[in-house]
Structure formats: structure tokens, C-alpha cells
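Technical annex B. To support the medicinal chemistry partners, we prepared a structural model of the target in complex with coproporphyrinogen III, based solely on the information shown next.
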Amino acid sequence: MTSTVLPATHPLNSDTASSWLVSAYRGERPPVTPVWFMRQAGRSLPEYRELRVGRRMLDACLDPDLAAEITLQPVRRHGVDAAVFFSDIVVPLKLAGVPVEIQSGVGPVFPAPLDTPESVAALIAEHPPESLETALEPIRAAVAKTVAGLRLLQGARDPLIGFAGAPFTLAAYLVAGRPSKDHLAARSMVHRHPDAWARLLDWCAELSGRFLRAQVLAGASAVQLFDSWAGSLPAAIYTAHVAPSSAKTFDAVRDLTDEAGRRVPLVHFAVGAGELYGVLDLDVDCIGVDWRTPLDEASRRMPSGPAVQGNLDPALLGAPWPVLRDAIDEVLRRGEAAPGHVFNLGHGVPPSADPEVLTRIVDHVHSR
Ligand code: CP3
């Protein structure tokens, strides 16, 4: 693959090149373990709830000033070592013109389920991925504003992490039309209509890939692919019917390098993936681990030796401080088994989390 060098003005060529986050993703051991939280921007913050009053989730994602401000809020408040772009995994679908809404307390909802070869063919014909290129403009603008905002903060070297939903997780919503517990509709389609399934995943990969590439070109310094529902799959099905599309999503940014020829760090995160750690490394730099598997054990199951990210159980956020502190120390100790470690929760910040507890976690990780 021929590489594409990011411009001199890109943060990876200046401010974020030596950041703790980027070096830990590259398998190094910076002086301090970097920390950020999945879903750090969002309902746990009163300043977020205030900004969202009267605005729908997806409208907020497509307003560059608002999306940038929401992305910066937790960085200012907690002093985390990275911003994660405020958006949603369904944003590229919305930008491609697919009718979708995010219902509060429910999640992404599509008007019609999509579980036949005919409905998949119609979806793809009506929504060509190329149409995304102009539609992505508000995303590019929001990323550029966020990066400009990060440069004004103390230290001026916090990276922005871009992200996308993995094709399987997107397809699980599309096929069922709404969130489901067991993802049976999607998992059945793999077997009933394997060709339509492959075409659907490939189309999702095109959209997620373009969404990721736009974020990196606009200034993101790393990318994370979220496969929230991959844990519902046996490893053999994952490898045969899902992994190629997730690899394709990463391929959309693999060629992008800094001036020293180092690629943009790639992070892969799946929930409930204890059975999958041996097959999740699609030539990535870091694998996110959920709260179920201790980091040293997860790392042993990853033959290629990537860095790890995680994995404090969000259930500990309400525990008395000595209990929480011991759990943080245990995560840090087990994380030493991997070449690099980025501290995080094992899944997103719950809306009920006390923000002061999150700040205290950051301070504690930094003090170690
Ligand atoms: O991590 C961050 O701070 C970045 C922002 C982010 C959001 N969604 C904002 C959001 C990220 C990375 C996501 C990813 C996402 N969205 C995933 C994958 C990660 C995971 O948690 O497993 C999934 C499965 C979705 C789909 C989705 N969007 C769900 C299930 C929900 C929750 C619905 C609800 O109300 O409980 C959303 C909405 C959503 N995405 C919110 C936020 C801040 C809450 C909406 C609100 O504030 O009204």
C-alpha cells in the first residue's frame, strides 16, 4: 500500500506526535499511563445536558460549533489525555440519506427492518457511499474546530480520537430496525442470505471508512472502531463473515502516515469479546478490552502483541474510594503485561456517573 503523508499542519506532525496517548498506542511506555473514557462527552456532564436542551442528538452531531464544544467539555473538566469526537456510529448512515433517529433511552431506530436480499439491494442502490464526500463537510468542520480548541488548552498536545461503528454493529441495527439483545435477526441473516449479508457489510464498511478518513484528514490523531455487538458472534463466524468488512474500514485510513512514516494509530474495541481476542487483531495497534477480561489475560490471548486499552468496570464508579482506588491500581498492574496501556473504562461512562469521580480517577492514574 502506498502511503499518504499527512500535511505538516496535521497534529500528528507537531502537537500530538509525542503525546502519551499516541506513544502508548504505539506500544511504548510514556512516563504516565494516559487515560480517557469512552462516552466521556455526554449525559454524565451537567454542562452537556444544558447544551442539549431542545436539540435532537443527531442535529447536535451535525452542528460543528456544538459538536466541537461538547467534545472539549470533558477534556477541560477532567484533564483526560484525549478528546473523543462527539458524534455517533449512525451519523454516516444519516449523512448518506438513510432515515434514522436516535431515541432517548432506546438507541438508533430505523423505520423499516432490512432483512431480505431485496431490501439490502434497494438500500445500496438508493444510498451510494460516494454521496458521503460532500455530506461529510459538517464533520470535517467540527473536527477542525475541535483540534483548534485543543491547541488552546494547557499543554496543547491532547490528541483527538476519531471513531466509527464497525460494520457488524451498524448492520445489527439496520437488519433489526432497532436495538436488540441477542442480535438474532442479523446473526440469522449471515446464514440465510450470506451474499446479501456480505454486500450489506461491505456497504457499511464503505460508509464507516469514509467517516474515519474524513476525521483523520481534518485533524484526528488516532481512530477507534467500535464493535459493540461483536461479542454475540462465535469466533469462526466473526472471522469468515465479519472481520473482512472491519478490516476494510481500517483500510480506509491505513495509508495515512506522519512525516516520519508512522501510521495513524488504529484501535479496535469490541464488547463481550472474550472469545474473540485471538481474532480481533486486524493489523491494528491497540485492542480495547471490556470489563469482563483482566488485561493481562486478554493480552495473552492476542498473539500479535498489540497495546491494550481499558478496562475498569463501570460498576465500580459508585464504590467507596478505597475500593475504587484498589480496582484502578489492579487495572494498571495488569496492563503492564502488554507493550502499551491506555487506561479507560471497560465500556462507556453511564449517564448516572458522578463526574467528580471521573476526575478523581484521572488524577489517580496520573499520580502513579
Ligand atoms: O465516547 C464519546 O464520548 C464519543 C461519542 C459517542 C457517542 N456514541 C455519543 C452518544 C460514541 C463513540 C458513540 C458510539 C456509539 N453509539 C456506539 C458504540 C459504543 C458503545 O457504547 O458500545 C453505539 C452502540 C451507539 C448507538 C447509540 N447511540 C446508543 C445505544 C445510544 C444511547 C441511547 C440512549 O439514550 O440510551 C446512542 C445515543 C448517544 N450517542 C448519546 C451520546 C452522548 C446519548 C444521547 C443523548 O445525550 O441524548
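Notes passed to the chemistry partners:
The domain at 4-367 is CATH 3.20.20.210 (TIM Barrel).
The first helix runs from residue 20 to 25.
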